[in-house]
Amino acid sequence: MIDKIIKVEVKLIRVPLKKPVSDAKVIQGKQTPLKEVMITAALIETEAGYTGMGYTYCKRNGGPAQYALSKEYAPLLLGQDPNDISRLWNKLLWSSISIGNTGVAVQGITPFDIALWDIKAKRAGLPLSKLLGQHKEYVPCYNTTGGFLQDTIEEVIAHARTVLEQGVGGVKIKVGQPDYKEDVKRVAALRKALGDDVPIMIDANQQWDVSTALKAGKYFDDYNLVWFEEPVTCHDVEGHLRLSQALGTPIATGEMLTSYEEGVPFFEKRAFDVCQLDAPRIGGITQFQKVLQRAEENHLVLAPHYSMELHLPLTACYSGDAWVEHFEWFETVGLFEEKVELVDGKMKVPTRLGLGLTLNQDVLPDLQVDAQLFQ
Questions:
Q1: Residue 1 confidence (pLDDT)
Q2: How many Å apart are CA 163 and CA 145, to the nearest integer?
Q3: What is the pLDDT of residues 216-245, one digit of tens each?
Q4: pLDDT tens per residue across span 15-42
Q5: Which positions are tagged coiled coil (predicted)?
Q6: Which of 143, 151, 262, 276 could cross-link to 255 by cystine, CB 3.0-4.6 Å?
């Protein structure tokens, strides 16, 4: 059915954290502790009465830039057929091509792209995962929020036990300190406390060079880790490849890449074992479908970064091994009316129509920073 977009609303939303968190970038003096997440959300309405919602996000600086560009994109969608998702993605990108085809340029498209896929699934009378081709009803998940470096290892262990009891399947701990041996001690203590069977991941947040990562990785290999994440800077294809070949622990990266094209060299050189490209950061579902295909061709583990509410139905469409990252920050403030369901170490894929997410109008007035309607 041919339809027409008649209304687009763009919102800037601030999600405060219960307490500031610090990874290795903070410990190494490159950032300040993270206190909030900024979200740009889009609501699209069509002439036929369909509505869709999508969002992108930013940690630290950049959220208002995403919002500003999304507001420039929004009027370009009015009068367009919402079925033409790929064409509209290209239309928006070309409208801002003078600032490039990565980063904010594509992240400003993300809310609209996701909202259009939400509409397409609703029109078909299907959950998003069924529309795209679902392989899984449950996806393994791991928690990250309790593994930051501002907490003592005793606090990390206590939080890990709590989330495991709640139904999470594994835990991730931050590493990447100036003295990697301090990280090895924390990992050893966590493994000892949780036993041999609990999946544990580690994340250095790009803070080591290849030489240091190799030295640390030799120690980490003794602890049966699921993966070693971002051991070196995110664009170092050769460095990740070298580490993947030298270490027993699988190498994960991709979350900081800001377009599908930035990930292509990693696929071509098989420079990682775990693919972590993030749908909101690379332009939404249209671009993430390319990631699904390339990851499958390379027989990679798929573990997209953050945004569990979105990545759950997307990873359900992956035929290989996959993980979803459990970050409860949005649930803590009640951003969406819906919550993920944890069952025996996995997340249950939602069966609600479309994306299956609704902005919670009861809390939105306290979280919303700004909004603009186009019609």
A1: 80
A2: 10
A3: 999 999 999 999 999 999 999 999 999 999
A4: 999 999 999 999 999 999 999 999 999 9
A5: none
A6: 276
Q: What is the pLDDT of residue 315?
A: 98
Q: Does residue 354 belong to any structural domain of this protein?
A: no
Angle of helix 285-297 relative to helix 110-124, nearest 10 degrees, comes to: 80
Q: Are residues 151 and 169 in the same domain?
A: yes
Catalytic residues: 174, 305
Instruction: Please tell me what DSSP assigns to residue 373.
Output: E
Share of the chain above pLDDT 70, in %: 100
Check residue 22 and give left, alpha or beta (phi > 0: left; psi -120 to 50: alpha): beta
366's CB contacts (< 8 A; 6+ apart) are none
Q: How far is Cα 112 from Cα 199, in angstroms, rounded to an integer?
A: 36
pTM: 0.96
Q: For residue 55, what are the contacts with CB-CB under 8 A and spacing of at least 6?
A: 39, 40, 41, 42, 110, 111, 114, 280, 310
Report the residue count for the chain: 375
CATH number of the domain that residue 13 is part of: 3.30.390.10
Q: What is the mean pLDDT of the chain?
A: 97
Full residue range of the structural domain in which residue 36 is found: 5-125+361-374
Asked if residue 169 lies in contact with residue 308, where contact means CB atoms within 8 angstroms, the answer is no
Q: What is the number of domains present in the chain?
A: 2
